[in-house]
Amino acid sequence: MRRVVLFHIDSLHHEASRHLGLENVQRLAERGTQVKESLVISPWHPTVSGYLPLSTTSFPNPTTFAGSLFLRPSHEQRYLQHGFGGFTAHIANSEAYRSLNPGFDFTRLSGDDSDEDNVRLGLRLLREHDDLTFMRLLLQDTNTASQEVANAPAGEPWARDIYAKGSPYPAVVRRADALLGTFLDGLERIGMTHDTLLVLLSDGQSRFGWHPVQAEDSWRTPLIFAGPGVAKGRSIPYAENIDIAPTVAALAQVPSPSDDGGSGRALDEIRPDDRPGDAGPRAPGAPRRVERINRQIAEYLRLEGWLRAHARDYPYLDVRLMRASNSSLSDAQFWGLDRIDEWPQAESIDQMIEDNDSVLDTLRQALHDSGAPALP
């Protein structure tokens, strides 16, 4: 393998290929291994509080490139691109991804560029730089259409449904799929298909539009690996976004960006072996830690909101919420969306899960004991 290209179609719904007949996504899947259920960490996107020094983009992006849920300030963070020598490039038509720039030799993040511009530039850089070893190439136009659906007035027949008749989303996604085809054809023309690892990924998209964190389809994304060291025509059952960096690093034989308690795992089950058919090796004990944290976060948001809504009439709820947020009064606090900058203090994802379960149990009991209405 001589190079890695992460081809990122922003806001690509996990069922878009089935709903919209995306020929080139399927073409790539036939060349490699696709993940049936690929989950990202809750795609929350704040630009305030303690998260801003970590990243200017949503949670899945920096955690994917760090290969870990535990982030440091972006100028200190080690990302996947830091492990590659030679020439590296980052292309996206949005400046929101600028915090991912450290470690790249070439960056162009211009909101004036189209998806077509990005693909042309990516192919040009491949032709001009024989030593190009790593590229992140992102198509952003799908996100614009997705947000249009999410924010449409209630009277629009396609409001809050990306697949409804008249929605702007399908046409933009089909155009992105065609551009993936243009890129695949370009790799073939310049003789780089055989020695390029290509990874197709996204970062969260709901059928409602954009990526509300309590909508479970926001957590699910398409994920395909194709190229040297990857089985052809295979599917594997499950992976998480923090598994992408260690998997790419293992295939490219470069250092993984992280080996801390928040790290993912290398997906060894995508490698070729002697087993026939589609199933491939399974890894039955693969942990679903990101899924568990996402479910905990969704439950906490509902439960905390319900308790606060009733705390005026049932002050005991405020007391218990306050106690659960006080480290001198309770053994565990909830590792929520507003504390991602503190997540490394948990020291491991398993500890995060354990602490979160403890807090949720405490708050459920408080609601029961208060006499307030039960959570619907």
Q: State the helicity in percent bands.
A: 25-40%
Q: In terms of per-residue confidence, which ranges show pLDDT below 50 for 5 or more consecutive residues?
A: 274-282
Approximately what portion of the residues adopt beta-strand conformation?
5-15%
Number of strands: 9
Question: How is the biggest beta sheet arranged?
Answer: 9 strands, mixed
Backbone structural class = alpha/beta
| Shape designation | globular
Please give the alpha-carbon distance between the first and last residues. Answer: 53 Å
Average pLDDT confidence is: 96
Radius of gyration: 21 Å
Helix tally? 10
Order of helices and strands: EHHEHEEHEHHEEEEHHHH
